[in-house]
């Protein structure tokens, strides 16, 4: 029987304590060549406003594809900018297993990947977090990163000051100006809809770690050249060289893929400043979808 799973179904079983280690393995498998996936196919429907992407992958225990819509224009209407559906198959037999909502999976796996990489790259005992952006990804990263770091000071900045104040009140953090948020922070998350660089490398504390998850197009930027010319780790060399304006336009050299860092093949010193540029990989979605599917089966069997 092919199961149909809603966002509510996903939310009942998907937890960061399970998802973060699952993303570590997915990234390691990807960099080790144990995953089959192309760079996502993106259809431009309306430049700057409406895009659609197809993301297939075959991993050890999951096969499938995500169809995702990226509609920046939805933000003005208070609607999600990312919506998705995931089809999951059993890779040994090709048997279809489930069709599930992919919005929450996209949200949580993005933050879980950043948390997994932060575990390996951030300074030991990081205490100060800066969230640049106050939307869905800022909230998800705050939750995920708290599984790998214990922060005493969390700062948030948004291009819309009211949004930062609202986020700060909701999550018990501090809304600050941009430079104030970044200076002295040990972990920084850039998760905005920016198309021009706003995060300056000169503000970064030596040894800080940046998770850059916005600027999802080859001409868009969040980080300036100074920021990008630190130790650069990416989720996929091939993907960022097609999709990431931060990487393409800065000409920054790629030190390693995240999977290589997690596997111990390339390990930078904790004392150097690092940037993790994440564009999102299909394997992350398929592995997460399989985790959801297996968790729901276990839950239902336990109630039987």
Layout of secondary structure:
Elements: E1 3-5, H1 7-13, H2 16-31, E2 41-46, E3 50-58, E4 63-70, E5 82-89, E6 96-101, H3 103-121, E7 128-132, H4 136-145, E8 153-157, H5 161-171, E9 174-175, H6 178-182, E10 187-190, E11 209-212, H7 225-228, E12 231-234, H8 237-243, H9 245-250, E13 254-257, H10 258-263, E14 274-277, H11 282-303
Parallel strand pairs: 1-6, 7-8, 7-10, 8-9, 10-11, 11-14, 12-13, 12-14
Antiparallel strand pairs: 2-3, 3-4, 4-5, 5-6
How many independent structural domains? 2
Strand content: 15-25%
Rg, Å, rounded: 18 Å
Mind telling me the CATH superfamily name of the largest domain?
NAD(P)-binding Rossmann-like Domain
Please write the string of helix (H) and strand (E) elements: EHHEEEEEHEHEHEHEEHEHHEHEH
Overall geometric form: globular
**Major β-sheet profile:** 8 strands, parallel
CATH architecture of the largest domain: 3-Layer(aba) Sandwich
Strand order of the largest sheet: 9-8-7-10-11-14-12-13
Class by SSE composition: alpha/beta
**What is the CATH level 1 assignment of the largest domain?**
Alpha Beta
Oligomer: single chain
In whole angstroms, the N-to-C terminal distance is 17 Å
As a percent range, the share of helical residues equals 25-40%
Number of helices: 11
> What is the mean pLDDT?
96
Beta strands, count: 14
Here the CATH topology of the largest domain equals Rossmann fold
The residue ranges in which pLDDT falls below 50 over 5 or more consecutive positions are: none
